[in-house]
């Protein structure tokens, strides 16, 4: 893989994200305005900074109360804690979640350097990195200046209880990039706290490939690992690992299919399931970039399960926008050709058609699993309407509403299970990396009919890009 020396924001096809591109020696802007990165204006940041770093850099800043984005020269962040690293950004993403801040609904009241998705190169390390870091996460001993890294959208120390058990999004030291207390990744440089636990090295992704295999991994696709691909994987894996889905995977009924199985007399043991009981019906609600990632992850896992257990599945992808339904159809055809949809029937549809299809597929019973990837109450209500009794709803949407649209009776009457919340990106990253490598046909391209990323632009286009993104006007650019 060749690492391109530029910094950019990307545009997922359907979420109309944009990004910023620069030459390593200075911004190559839309206006051809070079940045002053001359070495006479540089300073070392800490003992372990082996490269010269400028005093100021270009950064995308948001100003309260809303809709005000400027690209400005601001001071380069410095090492503040010995666990910190400074990363020189090569790609920074603009994501649906940035719009909460942009519109003034993100609960932020002070100016910020925006962005929570970035990949780049380590240019400075705090004093806790080095040979004396035994017993700490490996990167404290092995991370070097010049290493290419992906940063998850939140800080995770890798050492607390939550990080150790795989729930890193609730790390005791968790911080989101792109808030007043931690500058974000739509900039040339970023300070990464708890960097030995937070960062993920790009070469460990390539190490997943057997040595004889062609190493194909596009630079732009790495950015998807900062947030949306792990989040899609998280949605799919939470659903498929749910105890209520276990009967489909094991062929044995509840409660005799788990790690802990109650001891009962042989004569009272239930029989195995019929093959018709084992067809899994799944709906995905919301086909933005995260929904697309969730769909690809789900199809790949179902395909593997078909090979290992004979499981069959039908997957219904729902979004009101026809362009997004069509995109998912193309993506399904692409991953089917690539061998990631074995044993899976797939349809994408609008909301009303989707409801009818699920009824028909399941004789009016409903979906066994719904992945909610929107983040509003209409999508939660649709998910509830689609789910069958003893079904599983996995929601990764960020919900701004103060209440959820169900009564206690409705929840009771369906024995429904819900999972909500933020993806533990650092914990899921190794899993998501494998999928990233496998499905470069969807994640690797830029601006093709099947690709997730739509375009790469200069950082100087940030203001315009936010505006177009907010209005849904950049679409397939
Ligand atoms: N949990 C996490 O860690 C995490 C991480 C990243 C993003 N997110 C959240 O995931 C959600 C999706 O992100 P995205 O970037 O794909 O957003 P997006 O806005 O690009 O896509 C959402 C899609 O949902 C569709 N939609 C709206 N209402 C619907 C309904 N009632 N039924 C079906 N579809 C409906 C929209 O048409 C749109 O295509 C957002 O809420 C985002 O903030 C969560
Ligand atoms: Zn994001
Ligand atoms: Zn932690």
How many strands in all? 18
CATH topology name of the largest domain: Quinone Oxidoreductase, Chain A, domain 1
Each distinct ligand: nicotinamide-adenine-dinucleotide, zinc ion
Number of domains: 2
Shape: globular
Percent helix: 25-40%
Query: Mind summarizing the main beta sheet?
Result: 6 strands, parallel
Structural account:
This protein has 477 residues and is α/β, with parallel strands linked by helices. The protein has two domains: 9-226 and 424-470, Medium-chain alcohol dehydrogenases, catalytic domain (Quinone Oxidoreductase, Chain A, domain 1), CATH 3.90.180; 231-259 and 276-419, Rossmann fold (3-Layer(aba) Sandwich), CATH 3.40.50. The chain is 28% helix and 20% strand. The chain has helices at 98-102, 139-142, 161-164, 195-198, 203-206, 219-222, 228-240, 246-250, 289-309, 322-337, 351-361, 377-386, 408-414, 425-438, 440-443, 462-470; strands at 9-12, 42-43, 53-54, 56-63, 68-75, 85-93, 112-113, 117-125, 148-151, 189-192, 200-201, 279-285, 312-318, 344-349, 367-372, 387-395, 417-419, 453-457. The protein has a six-stranded parallel sheet, sandwiched between helices. A five-stranded antiparallel sheet has the order 10-6-8-9-11. A hairpin with a 4-residue loop joins β4 and β5 (68-75). It is globular and about 75 Å long. The model is unreliable at 1-8 and 11-45 (pLDDT under 50). The structure holds nicotinamide-adenine-dinucleotide and zinc ion (2 copies). Residues 95, 97, 116-117, 153, 227-228 line the site of one zinc ion.
